[in-house]
């Protein structure tokens, strides 16, 4: 299993579009890939239809929770 990368400030990239410095990522599964991925809000809307439990057009989507950046007070 490959280790997830983080930049030096602790934020993570979207694993679908590779957008850097994301502070909120949605953990989900889709027929586009195998296993779980952390995706940004824009990608989440594309793979889920903008509905937390998916819709008829996205039957293979599965929600798995949120990852949030919890930066220190000294940033």
Number of strands: 3
The number of helices is: 1
Largest sheet: 3 strands, antiparallel
The rounded Rg comes to: 13 Å
Mean pLDDT: 86
Question: What is the general shape?
Answer: elongated
First-last Cα distance: 31 Å
Oligomeric description of these chains:
single chain
The amount of helix comes to 10-25%
- Secondary-structure element sequence? EEHE
Strand content: 15-25%
How would you summarize this macromolecular structure in one to three sentences?
The chain has 75 residues and is of the alpha+beta class. It has one helix and three strands; from the N terminus they run ββαβ. It has a three-stranded antiparallel sheet.
Characterize the structure shown.
The chain is α+β, with helices and mostly antiparallel strands and 75 residues long. Helix content is 11%, strand content 21%. It contains one helix and three strands; from the N terminus they run E-E-H-E. The chain has one helix at 41-48, and strands at residues 24-29, 37-39, 62-68. It has a three-stranded antiparallel β-sheet with strand order 2-1-3. Strand 1 and strand 2 (37-39) form a beta hairpin. The longest helix is centred in the middle third of the chain and has 8 residues, at 41-48.
């Amino acid at each position: 299993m490959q280790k997830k990368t983080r930049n030096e400030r602790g934020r993570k990239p979207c694993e679908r579009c590779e957008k850097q410095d994301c502070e909120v990522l949605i953990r989900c599964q889709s027929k586009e890939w195998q296993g779980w991925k952390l995706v940004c809000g824009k990608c989440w809307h594309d793979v889920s239809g903008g509905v937390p439990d998916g819709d008829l057009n996205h039957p293979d989507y599965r929600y798995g929770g949120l990852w949030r950046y919890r930066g220190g007070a000294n940033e």
